[in-house]
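I'm stuck. Protein, please.
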Amino acid sequence: MNPLTPVRAALLTLCALFSISVMTTTANAANGPTPIKVKVAPKQASVGSKIQVRGNSGLDGRKKVNLLFRDAGTRSWDHLKKVTTDKRGFYSTGVTARKSGGFKVRTKAGEESSLRKVEVRSTLKVRSVHRFVKIGDKLGIRGIVKPRGVRRIKIVIKGAGKTIRTKTKRHGGFAASWRPKASGTYRVRVFSAGNSLAIGDKSRRFKVFGLRPSGASYYGPGLYGNGVACGGTLTPSTIGVAHKTLPCGTKVRIRYHGNTVVAPVIDRGPYVAGRDYDLTEAVRNRLGFGGVGTIWTNR
């Protein structure tokens, strides 16, 4: 076999390089452009908190990409902001969680990422719950839910077996009321239903005291140093009340002219018609109570 001439060798080298180039181009055409990647974290967030959106644009060099958002249940996309990538095409930005929906990224050439969904949790704030309500008066409960919009509200009052159902106004506010039929300690909790804008939320529990009128007097002077029915010795600084039937140690919440004292049952009495409680002198002084009168109690 004759050795290759320099010209023939050069031609063979060019053919080989051309074949490699065609194969590479064909492979790239088959694989297509590098897909745009997008991630969101967290995938569930409260209204007003931050959501991190990051990914890779598939482009080299610093380029701008558009971050888009679509409300849950709609088809139209809103432009949120332009984000600049780094030299390797990576991008990262923070957005404020306002409502449930989805994110995607679009390049200047019109290439788009896949959809990434996020759920936003409502924030329910109870702005007013009166801690004390007299029998026959109304207990007012007001609050607001964000994001704004009409949604169902459920108010559960434990201890009364009562559930109140209402709705928010368009601005997210709600108001309800309830009249206790008996004295006692009640626990109130508010729940907001979810909708297309956000999933539901619930408030913390609130203690509410239903109060009844009770006839009262006070005792102490001339009896200090004596024992009391529930054990112990009566002194000028003793915090307690006397009651004919409540178990010893029962905590009684007492209101009088805006002052509140929680006192345990320590003794028996009073034995005068029309009176439910005898207050120790220390309780009387804290309440600013006179000798005989009406107090409001949760028992």
